[in-house]
Amino acid sequence: MSLKEILAELREFDTALLANTLPYVSPIEPCEYYLSRRIQSVTPDLGPTVGIAVTIEMDSSTPALPVQIDPYWQQLHEIQAADAPVVWVVKSVGSRPDHECMIGDGMAKLLYSVGCIGLVTDGGVRDVAGLRSVPFAAYCCGTTIHHEPMRFRNPGKPVEVGGVTIRAGEIIHANNEGVIKIPIAAAKALPAMAVKMRAVEHAVHLYWRRTDVSIQQKRDHAGAVFAEYGFAGSKAPQHELK
Prior knowledge:
- By secondary structure, the chain is of the alpha/beta class.
- The chain is 34% helix and 20% strand.
- Strand 7 (159-161) and strand 8 form a beta hairpin.
- The two termini are 32 Å apart.
- The model has no long low-confidence stretch (mean pLDDT 95).
């Protein structure tokens, strides 16, 4: 199965379900893959955003520094050469974080034309109506009306966004509730396991709604359902009381 096909499968699941499932197919810990709540969608109607990460750092807020935009143009070539949808992951490194504006609808149109479907950043964005019309998804710290001359640096290097280190080539999965990263090594097995997790949650939630059974019965039932679908073991208790 190609990477593009895997990404298409992952798009069929909501981000929270995949976050619940990921520990069962990867040794990664939750603190290493879900971004902070500061990183939120400003284009929630665009649905799940799933693509491979292309990373860079950007300063759009420090006054009196010269433009340094060549790394951005070079990265557009890299995105165009990718064989799967790309999510642009941009680390804000300016001296005035609350003034950082990483993208507007003009840059979004250019990025989208070469295969980039969205942005994840700890900076701000503008022209949200224009982003939605592209369509280009944006996950950020809110809106910012303007910016200083843009400086790009360290294309392709790991970046920390939302308290999580993201490396180029990792998978980004995001929706209107937040953003996670998925290690490439876990991606192939994740969709099949997520189908099972969806069934588990359905069965457990139906039982938990009942008023004619005890709390202990609900707890025992959840453990039995997790075991039935192959989720028994040391990681199961973290979901049992979800």
